[in-house]
């Protein structure tokens, strides 16, 4: 819809800034006003409510109520709070990961020294420096409990050491997947063979002595056998259980677990040789303990060779990674 508007004024004014007459050579002052009464100027205005498709829509301005009640440019108290909030909005994962890596890194540094110290204090120091006379009071239950307490103390230190080693073997970046390491079947099979052999060999000889076999005479009392080999059999069972747990959890410490226990087992059997002399054990018992020492030294050597093989195997895999990626 359009409408035409005509103003009531019929007068038109023209303002000339400066006029010069060429004939009369007369200068007229500036801003001289001439009025033409007979000239009628018409102003026409077209108002249309329909907007064409190529025109931009009109801009409407609306007044908003002042809800801040006179507070202009409200912001946090300090500039650092604003920066921290902006950084957390832009990259929260990066900041969280960096803080986590820093905390984990600071925690892991003391473990490299604390873990071996715990293992040394709970296992080697009591066995090497504690006199046997203060532990062994004779072939009785008190001596058996004292020796078992020493081995339980070592087992506690070994468990703490393995937990620290497992924590150090994990990746530093929190975004990465946890390290999973599954031992091969042949490794698990031969470890079980070595552990079961360490069980069967002394028990068979002791049962032969109980049955009165000629090779295993004179007879060894049960309490003396428990003092000599009872803690050894108990710690061997704990080692088997710990190894099976590391295999089930696929922890990278499965390669270190038998080495830790077998080193202490050699010292444990050497302590049994000293106690055999004080108990007056028969000759076949002393030879049996010596055979166990040789057996576990052999098994320990194989375990150390496996550690060297595994280190070379992983180094070979790392060398092959760039070629496969290219």
From TrEMBL:
Q: What domain of life is recorded for the organism?
A: Eukaryota
Segments traversing the membrane: 109-129, 141-164, 185-207, 219-238, 292-312
Asked if the record carries the keyword Protein biosynthesis, the reply is no
Q: Which UniProt keywords apply?
A: Membrane, Transmembrane, Transmembrane helix
Q: Does the keyword Acyltransferase apply?
A: no
PANTHER family, alphabetically? CYTOCHROME P450 FAMILY PROTEIN (PTHR33918:SF3), OS01G0704200 PROTEIN (PTHR33918)
Q: What is this protein called?
A: Cytochrome P450 family protein
| Protein's organism | Deinandra increscens subsp. villosa
What lineage is on file?
Answer: Eukaryota, Viridiplantae, Streptophyta, Embryophyta, Tracheophyta
């Amino acid at each position: 819809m359009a409408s035409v508007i005509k103003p009531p004024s019929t007068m038109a004014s023209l303002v000339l800034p400066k006029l010069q007459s060429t004939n009369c050579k007369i200068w007229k002052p500036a801003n001289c006003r001439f009025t033409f009464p007979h000239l009628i100027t018409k102003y026409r205005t077209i108002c249309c409510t329909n907007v064409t498709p190529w025109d931009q829509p009109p801009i409407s301005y609306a007044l908003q109520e002042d809800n801040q009640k006179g507070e202009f440019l409200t912001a946090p108290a300090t500039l650092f709070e604003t920066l921290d909030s902006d950084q957390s909005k832009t990259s929260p994962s990066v900041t969280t990961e960096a803080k986590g890596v820093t905390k984990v890194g600071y925690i892991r540094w003391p473990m490299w020294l604390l873990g071996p110290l715990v293992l040394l204090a709970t296992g080697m120091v009591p066995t090497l420096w504690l006199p046997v006379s203060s532990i062994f009071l004779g072939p009785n239950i008190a001596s058996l409990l004292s020796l078992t307490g020493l081995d339980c103390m070592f087992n506690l230190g070994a468990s703490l050491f393995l937990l620290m080693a497992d924590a150090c073997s994990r990746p530093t970046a929190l975004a990465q997947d946890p390290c999973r390491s599954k031992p091969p079947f042949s490794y698990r099979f031969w470890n079980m063979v070595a552990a079961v052999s360490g069980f069967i060999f002394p028990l068979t000889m002791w049962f032969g002595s109980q049955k009165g076999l000629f090779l295993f005479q004179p007879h060894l009392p049960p309490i003396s056998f428990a003092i000599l080999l009872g803690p050894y059999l108990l710690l061997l069972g704990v080692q088997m259980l710990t190894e099976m747990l590391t295999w089930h959890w696929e922890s990278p410490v499965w390669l270190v677990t038998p080495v830790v226990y077998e080193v202490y087992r050699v010292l444990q059997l050497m302590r049994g040789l000293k106690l055999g002399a004080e108990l007056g054990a028969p000759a076949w018992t002393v030879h049996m303990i010596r055979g166990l020492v040789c057996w576990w030294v052999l098994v320990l050597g194989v375990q150390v060779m496996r550690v060297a093989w595994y280190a070379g195997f992983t180094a070979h895999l790392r060398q092959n990674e760039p070629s496969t990626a290219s």
